[in-house]
Amino acid sequence: MSMARCLNKAIRVALWAVSGTSLCLMTACSSSQSAAFMALRNVARPNAAIDSSPLNPKLTYLRVTVNDKPLLMVLGYVDRSSSEWPEQVWYSASGEVLRLRAGRLAGLVGTPVEWRSVRWPAGLPAWGAEPVSPAPYKRLLDEMPGYRLGVEDTLRLQAIAPPGSTAWRGSASADVRWYQEVPSSGSTSARYAVRQTASGAVPVYGEQCLAADFCLTWQSWPPLPKTTP
């Protein structure tokens, strides 16, 4: 069974379990199902006190805002079907599923605007290179509603100064660099924060608008501790 079909089955079974449907429907992909159950049991629904919600130290969290409304998501599992670009699969308490690849939005379902599948045919530029390569790269995506399949855009990545207005929470950190991804189509740019560590660059924040009235951000949670140069 492919990982995509495995994920879809895991989501359906997890939601059936939450609503009281018989667990006898469980068949394959047991590890992904377990991750889905764990995620759905341990995430907080959107509320004003989300930043102070108690966290389970055994789980990995993501702070997400949707049109400025915050919620927490939990890492269900990491899809390693692509050895070069593994995808993190995150779950919300309401059943939304968000996928991140190298810190970028690789999929979003269960929301008013969905990116069902996102592909980068020629790969992605590496984080942390200075200066960032000016070479453009392509992105293809399938969007709902509207059955917009294979929507293509050409992107450029550039380093920027820390923005003055973001959904970032926590103190400014000296080991975080900021980047902007600019599309040739004229749609809204995406922005990212990447932490430089001894083992390499780690994306810790991103923001993307999928439509004029639908924007989201995501940040590793809890926030990074403050560091000194």
UniProtKB/TrEMBL annotation:
Residues 1-35 form the signal peptide. Keywords: Signal. The keyword Signal applies. PROSITE patterns: PROKAR_LIPOPROTEIN. InterPro entries: YmcC_sf. It comes from the Bacteria. This is YjbF family lipoprotein. It comes from Aquabacterium soli.
